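Q: What would this chain look like folded?
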Amino acid sequence: MSYGLLVVNDNAYVQIDSNTPRLCSLYNGNYWAGSRVAIVTFPAAITTAEPPCIFIRNSPSAPNDVYGATILTGTPGNWTGFQIWANNIHSRPNGKWFAAVFATKATGEYGIRIWGASGELVFDSGATPVTVTRASNSWSYVSHGAQGPIGTATFYKCNIASGPLLEDEYFMINPFSRTILAPNTTSSMDAGIRWVYGSNLLSLYAIGVRPNWLDIGMPGAVFARLPGT
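A: My prediction, written as structure tokens:
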């Protein structure tokens, strides 16, 4: 940056930069469904061009629920909410969520605010920052076959997710809302994702009958904390 405000901590990590917004949570809450789909509507539209990052923490009370689809509702500049679909018709998704973007909103009654060159608000000390705790794109093949209520699927686990979730820790579901492509082909399979509390790992499933789906590529598993939730 050529001018403005730059804040760096004692580890030389840039914490505040007037040119680069930090990742902030705009809304958070609980999701619950009376059917296999949980529908969440934001209190007000999120106005960023890029879609919000949806972080979830599936409830320990429903440890077998696998989420097979996440659909953002709205359009660029007017994101209104999202839907989470369970892959099993008997599942009733429930848990906690927050929506985060690289932007901010004016929430603090006092503190500091920074505007960019175009007049956009890039920092508000009252906005809720998101703390990324761990991330990985390394997955290990576990097995193929019957996976309980999921049905036939190929099962993978995330290598970095070896410890329990903190009470206010979530994982980002966006990377797992699409199908999984097979290597060197144009085929794909539905994805299923869940945090497994009993074994403290993020489980990913390629749902279907193909037994040779050994390499799913490197989808990113991102975990983050939202203090106070």
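The chain has no helices and 19 strands.
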